[in-house]
Amino acid sequence: MKKHTTGIHHITAIVGHPQENIDFYAGVLGLRLVKQTVNFDDPGTYHLYFGEENGKPGTIITFFPWPNAYQGRIGDGQVGVTTYVVPVGAMDFWKERLTKFNISYSETVRFGETFLQFDDPHGLHLELVERVNGEDNGWTFGGVTKEVAIKGFGGAILYSCRPEETAETLVELMGLEVVGQEGDYKRFRATADIGNIIDLKMTTGVRGRIGVGTVHHIAWRANDNQDHIEWQQYAMDLGQHVTEVKDRNYFNSIYFRESGEILFEIATDSPGFAHDETPETMGSELKLPAQYEHLRERLRESLIPIEVRHLD
Predict the structure, then answer these.
(1) Residues 58-107 pLDDT 10s
(2) Which structural domain, as residue segments, surrounds residue 242?
(3) Would the pTM of this model clear 0.70, i.e. be above it?
(4) Domain count, the chain
(5) In a domain, 212, yes or no
(6) Tens digit of pLDDT for each residue in 194-206?
(7) 250: closest CA among 266, 278, 270?
(8) How far is CA 126 from CA 25, 71, 178, 242, in A?
């Protein structure tokens, strides 16, 4: 039986100073810091999660902040652009807001939609698009109200080393549907109402180099643990070299690098971000998995102090 993912679960990127990261994604974009924890594979590094008020799959962007690390290069084998969706009629607000914070932007049209494109402080390529689909985000912060707030992901632009093979993976393995082709881009759609549109660049360019300002991986949704195990076997049956299941506390994960060299993760929707703190307090303090709890005091001393703050 063929499987299909409903869409993007999260996107994870590498950035620089963690306070700069928080100031931009919370202070400028108005997203909620839904979890502050550590990289489970490198506990001396933060792992910060931003999304809508409840941290729903399809809204979460996560970061490994590496202060003073080398700059990466966006290119083939990576997510090239992360797309956010905002309510219809919100674009003028976002143009004014980006201008207020001296963030340069440009506009482009793709598949009949207008995108507002800009970079974060560490070089990640982002864009905003208006769409009807998706629930409004009830989180309000720093002058960003629910009428204009980012709902979650619109999707992403993928840069592949082998675009035709990546296209095949998106359809035959992940179960997305081809819905159009325009210029250099082929568009794919999943079934969720957000995080569901993938534009794949069908021409190649410079090869990406991992580092600050680049996306580390894109994660796709699995319903639950049983569905996740089925995905693991399904991907292996289709020739992917899939990792063992990794417990990430807020979801379980498997990973494989598809033929275009983009790192794919499949992550469970459950248990979510509120199981170790309440929905009201999510993101307010450092949360550690059990295996690192004994390091709490040492980590408090070594990790850079951070805070979510209103920006003028």
Answers:
(1) 999 999 999 989 999 999 999 999 999 999 999 999 999 999 999 999 99
(2) 8-302
(3) yes
(4) 1
(5) yes
(6) 999 999 999 999 9
(7) 270
(8) 11, 17, 23, 29
139: in domain: yes
Q: How many CA atoms lie within 13 A of 305 on its CB side?
A: 2
Helices (H) and strands (E) in the chain, counts: 5, 16
- What whole-number distance in Å separates Cα of residue 182 and Cα of residue 187? 8
Q: Decide if 98 is inside a domain.
A: yes
Write out pLDDT tens, residues 273-296.
998 999 999 999 999 999 999 999
Task: With respect to residue 186, please indicate whether it lies within any of the assigned structural domains.
Answer: yes
**DSSP category for residue 262:** P
Cα first-last separation, the chain: 54
Q: What is the pLDDT at residue 280?
A: 94
Give 53-93 as a 3 state SS string.
CCCCCCCEEEEEECCCCCECECCECEEEEEEEEECCCCHHH
